[in-house]
Design a protein that fits this description.
By secondary structure, the protein is of the alpha+beta class. The protein has helices spanning 10-27, 41-55; strands at 58-66, 74-82.
């Protein structure tokens, strides 16, 4: 099976590297160009996680509604949605 995870367009590679650097700065990881063997798994994972958060943001909506079980009571409701394209 061929690995299709490669970026073949130079402009796309540059944009992805810039995006990765921005994500690393947001989580406070000292990332440099090239090999980053000095990073712990936790640090590297936090950079990838931040990239995913920026690509697929989570939206929350909070509101109150009447409780369906107990008459006259109000219940707080929170919906969490991940928007992806």
């Amino acid at each position: 099976m061929k690995n299709t995870n490669q970026i073949n367009i130079p402009e796309a590679r540059e944009a992805m590297d810039k995006f990765k650097m921005e994500a690393a700065n947001e989580v406070g990881v000292n990332l440099k160009q090239g090999y980053n063997g000095h990073l712990t798994s936790r640090e590297a994972g936090s950079v990838g996680g931040q990239m995913v958060k920026n690509v697929c943001p989570i939206r929350t909506a909070r509101f109150t509604r009447n409780n369906r079980i107990m008459e006259g009571h109000i219940q707080a409701v929170r919906y969490i949605v991940r928007i992806s394209v």
